[in-house]
Amino acid sequence: MNEQSLSVREAIVGRRSIKKFNGQPVDREDLLNIIDDAVWAPNHKNREPWRLVVACGKELFQLHDLLRDTAIPRWQDLSAEVLEKQMQKFTTPGAFVFVIVPEDVRQKQRLEDYAAASTFIHNIQLLAWDYGIGSCWKTPEYLDAPAFREAIGAKPGERIISMLQLGYFDELPKGKERKKSDEIVTIFGQKEENETLEDVIE
Ligand SMILES: Cc1cc2nc3c(=O)[nH]c(=O)nc-3n(C[C@H](O)[C@H](O)[C@H](O)COP(=O)(O)O)c2cc1C
Questions:
Q1: HSE on the CB side for 38, CA within 13 Å?
Q2: Is 119 in the pocket of ligand 1 (CB under 6 A)?
Q3: Which of 62, 63, 145, 173 is 20 to 30 A from residue 108's alpha carbon, by CA?
Q4: Residue 127: helix, strand or coil by DSSP?
Q5: Which residues of the chain register pLDDT less than 70?
Q6: Is 40 annotated as a binding residue?
Q7: For position 1, what pLDDT does the model report?
Q8: Quick check: CB of 137 below 6 Å from ligand 1?
């Protein structure tokens, strides 16, 4: 069991997406424990519409090669120094989690499954945060590229919805201010301020 223990509020409000990792390895057991807790996410009909492909230890090297070949065009033409710099966004996270969801042909089920998997991913991010592990949900275009899908092992009828990078970090980014409730909430039955009768009739 993880020694740290943030309150739910502390985890939600304090978590930030980490885009700069310090290269410290992530323990596989910690990651699997996080995943085993994160699966308690809400999901309709208990379909548990997710499966994960994880790279966390020595398999990271093979993944780095795949990411290099996929994400850095003509990497062979770059100097070793420039390539190393460009590769840092892939080599510094301690773990990668690719989240794969079924793409149900029925729109309702497909949306539900994506929504459920999103709550699952957020659970992973919050639980990781409690371990002191930062994360960033990434959706680069190449997640849908056939060669990349094949290398990850996504089957027809499945979609890779997230490349989750996880790892330790030295700097906590400042979060962008969020809108407050008075900007996003309308009390049921009340007219919005500045709304004219014509707006309501329209
Ligand atoms: C569905 C989704 C896709 C995202 N894709 C990317 C991405 O491709 N690259 C990236 O740097 N951040 C990505 N993010 C992270 C957001 O940039 C980040 O959540 C946002 O800036 C708010 O910052 P915070 O998470 O620290 O509150 C994504 C987040 C979500 C939920």
A1: 27
A2: no
A3: 145
A4: helix
A5: 1-2, 193-202
A6: no
A7: 53
A8: yes
Identity of the amino acid at 52: L
Kindly state which CATH superfamily the domain 8-201 is placed in. NADH Oxidase (3.40.109.10)
Bridge partners of 160, per DSSP, are 100
Is 74 annotated as ligand-binding?
Answer: no
Candidates 98, 139, 160: which one to mutate for ligand 1, based on the most atoms within 8 Å of Cβ?
139
Do 166 and 96 touch, CB atoms closer than 8 A?
A: yes
| pTM recorded for the entire structure | 0.94
pLDDT value at residue 4: 72
Q: Which of 15, 16, 17, 163 to mutate to test the pocket of ligand 1 (most atoms within 8 A of CB)?
A: 17
Residue 117 burial (CB count, 10 A): 23
The SS3 assignment for 163 reads strand
- Distance (Å) from CA 36 to ligand 1 centroid: 23
d(Cα 17, Cα 4) in Å, to the nearest integer? 19
